[in-house]
Amino acid sequence: MKTEEYKAGDLDLTFGDDGAAYFRDVDYLFGMTTDTNDNTYAAGRTHDDKFYVARITADGKLDTNFGGAGYVIDTFLDDHKSQALTVNIDQQGRILITGDLRGWGDRICVARFTPDGSLDETFADKGKVAIPPPSDVFMRERSQSAEASSLSNGATVLSDGKILIFWKYFGYITYLVRLTEKGELDLTFNGSGYVKVSYKDYDLYPSSVNVIESERLIVGTFVMTQRLSYGLLVGYDLNGQLDRTFAKDGYALLEEPSDAGSEIWNLQQVQGHQIWAIGRTTAPSMGSDLPPTRGFLTRLNKDGHLDTTFNLGKPVLTPAGFSDEWIAGALQDDGKIVLAGSRFAAGTGMLGRYRSDGSLDADFGENGIRFFPSGGNARLVILQKDGRILAGGAVSQNGSRVAAVLRYHK
Question: Is the CB of residue 391 less than 8 Å from the CB of residue 408?
Fold first, then answer.
């Protein structure tokens, strides 16, 4: 019997339903992670504005041991519209989601579940908590424009069970927030549980939070000037104080390309090694003379300085003219990085794989790029234990967009 031949970047047809797991009740998938058993958790928002978290097995099937049907659908507070924006697994196998009440923008919502999908009643108020802004934040009127998005926050669970969240309250003020394992504000963090993230007088757009355990916290964001945006990484110590040994007095401002700027959507880092900054060039606004966006990738050393072994210290961009973006990345054991994003000119999600020197890996897909089989968008990417690639987002089916997770060969 002849073994089926495939190459890196080919869709793995043994996963789910001919290569994909579909989530037909879901409007968007915003977060994705795996556990020690190689189960995958996907979190997002249903079509009727409730949060959604599902567990699928290593081969792409809904795991009915989670929530009875393979998923949990609920709201964070009474009947308020809700969405889950991140999902993490702690060292006890508990599932933690963060999100918001769609359209309010005034609080971070957090829920934790036991491995069977039940709310963890040892966490906060019977499994859920809503974190208000600090008392000195001006309470803006709630509006739909104030809601958080999947690209305006980050969250991670630390090795001691504490929870670190990067958030923008009311769509205009950015904070790092740390909770205890029980879901209470951690008052050992900057004396209040909150750290305001700022850079000069610029408006910031938070997107990612990374932690080098026992060393420092790093957040990824970008500053918005009148015309261009510029990627910004900020370093803090573990107590929430600005780490002035990181980059230049705590701040790494990415000033190239100087004519296009950058928006950082994701950071990736192997413990104690370089930091990959992932995103796109500045998105043109209405009436702007800026060209379509290009996918953006650069690398810094762990102290926040550009890594000259990566494309001579300059960012790598996708070709001009296609309205590309990269949104997420996953680092392979061989030092290569897989990116997920979209090519809007073609209306499709895409994956790319780059070598450690910044060159596209021609052995992956078609000269380093692989497009989704049926349009849609890609916004999430993680790796299974054997290195196979899971890409989350949406595909097109019968003229409609369907949330999905697809698997590709490594």
Answer: yes
In 35-121 the beta strands, taken as DSSP E runs, fall at 40-46, 51-56, 71-74, 82-89, 95-101, 108-113
- 115 Rama sector, left if φ>0, alpha if ψ -120 to 50, beta otherwise: alpha
Closest CA to 304 of 224, 212, 198: 212
User: Taking 60 as the threshold, does the pLDDT of residue 123 lie above it?
Assistant: yes
pLDDT band at 139 (very low <50, low <70, confident <90, very high): low
The end-to-end CA distance of the chain, in Å, is 23
Task: Determine the Cα–Cα distance for residues 273 and 395; give it in Å rounded to an integer.
Answer: 34
Three-class DSSP category at 2: coil
Peptide bond preceding 257 in cis form (omega within 30 of 0): yes
Measured between alpha carbons, how far is residue 308 from residues 174, 252, 267 in Å? 31, 15, 18
Neighbours of 357 (CB within 10 A): 12
Among all chains, which residue has been given the structure tokens 């992932």? 278
For residue 207, give the H/E element and its range. strand 203-212
Distance (Å, whole) CA 50 – CA 166: 22
Model confidence band, residue 103 (pLDDT cutoffs 50, 70, 90):
low
Calpha distance 338→340 (Å, rounded):
7
Indicate if the alpha-carbon torsion angle 329, 330, 332, 333 is positive or negative.
positive
* pLDDT tens digits, 32-81: 999 999 999 999 999 999 999 999 999 999 999 999 999 999 999 988 99
